[in-house]
Fold this protein.
Amino acid sequence: MSDKFKVDFVFQIGICVSNLEETLENWKKYVDIDTSTIALRSTKTEYEAGNIKGLDMYNGKKCDPWFIKYYRFDLGNMDIELIEPLSKEPGTPYSDWLIKHGNGIHHIACKIHDRPAFLKMMEDEGITPMLGTSVGKVLANGETKNCFFFDLREQLGVIIESGSIVVGPMSKDPRAGNPTDYVDVPDHAVK
């Protein structure tokens, strides 16, 4: 294993906001986005349906489940994720961000060249995932879609999301290496 990790490409920018609907309206007002790609999702809905796990961990510690609602849309060749925590009380990854920083870029999601080596590197460095989730059914590769967020702001100035699946416009790129049965389709398209 190298002492460095390699990023094949960045496929998503996650932006934490205090008012999801207002922020989306501003994006639509100021930026020429393809509104047909806008999708609204809620981790609470997925959690209640039994489709998501990991919302009871934060910075390596057990906690009450935390939930977000979010819009995703395509911008250029990138997936933009606008995220609002359902509770603004301290103690969750996104509410803590808003309390400390206000609206702004929370993370970038990367296709890591050798993800297992990257995860091992983080473990060896003693860097615990700030959060990790597993979503949906088992895919053709034998895994569920999952992601881990590492707070590397001290080292790199950014939180890195390492996902097992590439989402957004890059999900169809052959370099994504997504399982053949993965389809990145909005479940709640917004007009």
In short: Residues 7-176 form a domain with the 2,3-Dihydroxybiphenyl 1,2-Dioxygenase; domain 1 fold (CATH 3.10.180.10). The first strand starts at residue 7 and ends at 16.
